[in-house]
């Protein structure tokens, strides 16, 4: 099998893509790579504490490799280049991701990894969101919503298990997989997990982030965020 690193977010798309890769046996996944905020020791995208990510990796049976970067990912590219060098020394030529259809995200990954002679692999690529959510619902993987975009999904969605009933309750303008950032999840049991990953939600907070759009316009987005504990 080809040696590969899986870029792990801790959420449902990562879990589904990884389960697919493990079932197909084309790649030997030697590590789950996660980007961490060095100040908070939580994952950059989902704010999952390192200890929970380590428990996920232990349950799956693949070691976690944490790449720590500064707030707002200012040194992200430098840290990722170091990680690539580390894994290339172990014969890795493929980095696997769980993206679905965001072409700019895929193009960015390829622009950074291809010059380093690392091939980007996307097991879910170009499936429709409906196809992916159907695959997820049939996978046995259990996931809870831990982040929502506040103007699209209110705080009552935090902590709920992602199942067909919950998906049916989404407003019509929500991508069912949350691929546009409408929500993020934490996967904790079923499917590829050998044992349940225990965690609690101690509170729900609202946070805001300022983004500069492609047009140059600056916009503030607010999110409901679960505070996770073990």
Please describe what this structure looks like.
This protein is of the alpha/beta class and 230 residues long. Helix content is 28%, strand content 31%. The protein has helices at 12-24, 50-60, 76-88, 103-113, 129-139, 164-168; strands at residues 2-7, 27-37, 42-43, 64-69, 94-96, 119-121, 142-149, 183-189, 200-212, 218-229. Helix 1 (12-24) packs across helix 5. The chain starts with a strand and ends with a strand.
SSE layout and pairing:
Layout: E1 2-7, H1 12-24, E2 27-37, E3 42-43, H2 50-60, E4 64-69, H3 76-88, E5 94-96, H4 103-113, E6 119-121, H5 129-139, E7 142-149, H6 164-168, E8 183-189, E9 200-212, E10 218-229
Parallel strand pairs: 1-2, 1-5, 2-4, 5-6
Antiparallel strand pairs: 2-3, 7-8, 7-10, 9-10
Helix pairs in contact: 1-5
């Amino acid at each position: 099998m080809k040696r590969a690193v899986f870029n792990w977010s801790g959420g449902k798309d990562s879990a589904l893509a990884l389960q697919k890769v493990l079932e197909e046996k084309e790649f030997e996944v030697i590590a789950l790579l996660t980007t961490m905020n060095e100040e908070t020791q939580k994952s950059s995208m989902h704010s999952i504490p390192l200890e929970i990510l380590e428990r996920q990796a232990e349950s799956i049976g693949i070691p976690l490799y944490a790449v720590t970067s500064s707030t707002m990912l200012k040194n992200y590219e430098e840290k990722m280049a170091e990680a690539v060098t580390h894994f290339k020394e172990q014969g890795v030529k493929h980095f696997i991701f769980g993206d679905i259809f965001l072409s700019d995200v895929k193009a960015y990954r390829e622009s950074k990894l291809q010059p380093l002679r690392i091939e980007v692999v996307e097991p879910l690529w170009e499936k429709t969101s409906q196809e992916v959510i159907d695959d997820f619902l049939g996978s046995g993987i259990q996931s809870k919503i831990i982040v929502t975009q506040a103007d699209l999904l209110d705080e009552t969605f935090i902590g709920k298990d992602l199942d067909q009933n919950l998906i049916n309750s989404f407003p019509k303008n929500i991508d069912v997989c949350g691929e546009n950032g409408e929500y993020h999840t934490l996967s904790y049991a079923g499917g590829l997990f050998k044992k349940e990953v225990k965690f609690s939600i101690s509170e729900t907070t609202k946070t805001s982030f300022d983004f500069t759009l492609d047009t140059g316009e600056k916009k503030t987005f607010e999110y409901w965020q679960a505070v996770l504990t073990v």
